[in-house]
């Protein structure tokens, strides 16, 4: 990707102190921090065939070096994640230069994301993509007991690897409820239905930016994304909020709020 | 509840806010109002302190229905605590519904300290509703007693 190479050199010459991106190392994408325009890593920098959430690395870098201007390549989902993280006071967007990459039509279709492009697109072409709600609609046409049975079977494959939490760009807590022995009994595999999964789902309400990394990383192929996408739909439907869309409006679940906001309550 | 032994009865957990609903329940008691005895109540300082985890935990531990009762909107002792409850509740109920738990098992009511009669009525109707749904599908088999 020569376009990327040029952008990295440009950004490093124009005020950015470092560029965080992925590089191809023996066929595997690994994160790398490029600090000099002479670095050899620039030539092997890539967008990565496999997505890798750079958010946690950014949070750590910004904590260590709060005054550094960091540049980073973002897809639509990365941008939503960074916006939401900044509202949760984890990232400083003023110190972050985001270089937007639009996903290709094939990537967008395979992913099912409703906004597969960031606000400012530098590389690639914007494509519109319908929100993939088929699984949710199919589940909602079932009866309550059928749906519970379906989820029970899916979750019975869970090996409690915490992969969904570890990969999640929006999970940054040091103390995780999923490791609280009062909520999730230690040493029980698969974890109890539904506590483990509902606790994570509830924490994702107002946070999940629909990147789909949880489902991608799940070794048991549990359709986690449908659950978290449903949480997004609930937030949009009941509380009129979609994570990562606005830079100023905070999640209604993060403050006490006003009477007008609870109008939907029957 | 005729013809039913105690163990077959459904169990309900009620989270009551200290300032309104607990006093409302107290009033129902001193007024000698009749309501079903299968309700276990937990007094909390404000319904806004009730984490969604508490409700999940209640179902996990074998409750068949969970009631959250607090001050009317605008009357919260902490001004806006029940706004949080209202927002959280809507998300929680829909999330549990999506996993297959009937909506009727979770209820939010506003009961003031003067509404002893309303409290008794809420418990009566909620108990009937949960009774009609039967034992919760999340009940653990070894914890039915």
From TrEMBL, chain A:
SUPFAM superfamilies according to UniProt: alpha-helical ferredoxin
Domain of life, per the record?
A: Bacteria
Signal peptide annotation: none
One Pfam family for this entry, by name? Fer4_4
Q: Which UniProt keywords apply?
A: Iron, Iron-sulfur, Metal-binding
Q: Residues in domain 4Fe-4S ferredoxin-type?
A: 198-228
Molecular function GO labels: iron-sulfur cluster binding; metal ion binding
**Name the record gives this protein:** 4Fe-4S ferredoxin-type domain-containing protein
Q: Tell me the organism.
A: Candidatus Solincola sediminis
């Amino acid at each position: 990707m020569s376009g990327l190479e040029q952008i990295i050199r440009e950004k490093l010459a124009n005020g950015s102190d470092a560029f965080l991106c992925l590089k191809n190392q023996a066929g595997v994408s690994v994160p790398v921090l490029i600090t000099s325009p002479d670095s050899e890593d620039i030539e092997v920098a890539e967008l990565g065939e496999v997505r890798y959430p750079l958010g946690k690395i950014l949070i750590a870098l910004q904590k260590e070096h709060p005054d550094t201007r960091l540049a980073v390549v973002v897809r639509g989902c990365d941008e939503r994640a960074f916006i939401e993280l900044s509202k949760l006071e984890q990232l400083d967007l003023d110190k972050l230069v985001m270089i937007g990459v639009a996903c290709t039509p094939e990537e967008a279709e395979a992913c099912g994301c409703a906004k597969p492009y960031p606000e400012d697109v530098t590389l690639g072409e914007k494509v519109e993509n319908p929100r993939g709600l088929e699984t949710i609609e199919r589940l909602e046409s079932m009866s309550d007991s059928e749906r519970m049975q379906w989820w029970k079977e899916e979750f019975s494959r869970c090996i409690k690897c915490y992969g969904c939490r570890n990969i999640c760009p929006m999970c940054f807590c040091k103390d995780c409820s999923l490791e609280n022995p009062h909520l999730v009994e230690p040493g029980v595999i698969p974890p109890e239905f539904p506590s483990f999964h509902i606790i994570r789902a509830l924490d994702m309400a107002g946070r999940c930016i629909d990147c789909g990394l949880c489902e991608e990383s799940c070794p048991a192929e549990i359709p986690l994304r449908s659950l978290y996408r449903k949480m997004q739909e609930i937030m949009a439907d009941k509380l009129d909020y979609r994570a990562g869309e606005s830079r100023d409006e905070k999640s209604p679940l993060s403050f006490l709020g006003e009477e007008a906001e609870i109008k939907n309550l029957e | 509840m005729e013809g039913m032994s105690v163990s077959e009865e459904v169990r309900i957990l009620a989270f009551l806010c200290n300032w309104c609903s607990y006093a409302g329940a107290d009033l129902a008691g001193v007024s000698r109002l009749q309501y079903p005895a299968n309700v276990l109540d937990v007094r909390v300082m404000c319904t806004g302190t009730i984490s969604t985890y508490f409700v999940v935990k209640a179902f996990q531990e074998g409750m068949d229905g969970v009631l959250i009762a607090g001050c009317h909107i605008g009357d919260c002792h902490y001004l806006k605590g029940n706004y949080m409850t209202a927002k959280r509740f809507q998300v929680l109920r829909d999330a549990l519904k999506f996993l297959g738990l009937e909506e009727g098992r979770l209820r939010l009511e506003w009961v003031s300290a003067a509404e002893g009669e309303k409290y008794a009525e809420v418990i009566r109707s909620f108990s009937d509703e949960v009774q009609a749904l039967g034992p919760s599908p999340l009940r653990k088999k070894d914890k039915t007693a």
